[in-house]
Amino acid sequence: DIFLVNKADLPGTECLLDSLRSLFEIRIRENKGSAAPLLTASAIQDQGLDEVFAEMERQIQGLVQSGRYQERKRSRMEHEIKESILRNLWERFSRLTNARKEIQVVSGRLLENRQSPYPYIRKTCAQIKMEFTNERSGCENGE
Fold it and tell me: 69-90, pLDDT tens digit by residue?
């Protein structure tokens, strides 16, 4: 991470920087980690931009050399796959059951009666039977 205070030429910048440094010190003591670089920049005064660029390059090199860059890419890919599957399953489920309208009605009723949604969720999920096939036509989106 890099923390950048932009428009550092405006009044109040030093106060903001002092506050951020204090917060970072607390975080370091609690987590026993290190603080992310705290940089300032002002495009109007053409200050700090070279330092920001250099820090970004340094961080990227560190990520690549440590293998964390590849791990972050894999993690983002994994998240994207899961989200796509969830969207696809939701679309299929809602088409089959008219779930969008039913959930609107049920939500309104639950709010009126100050009830938890979890019994409804458990009941609905218990009605779902899943069957997995290895056919390529199994996923309609994101192939």
Answer: 999 999 999 999 999 999 999 9
Q: What is the reported pTM?
A: 0.56
Please give the full DSSP string across 13-74, using - where no structure is assigned: HHHHHHHHHHHHHHHHHHH---PPPEEE-BTTTTBSHHHHHHHHHHHHHHHHHHTHHHHHHH
Residue 33 to residue 90: CA distance in whole angstroms? 40
Nearest Cα to Cα of residue 39 among 83, 74, 1, 92: 1
Q: How far is Cα 10 from Cα 40, in angstroms, rounded to an integer?
A: 11
pLDDT at 135 over 70: no
Helix axes 68-97, 99-112, angle to 10 degrees: 90
Rounded CA-CA distance 140/143 in Å is 7
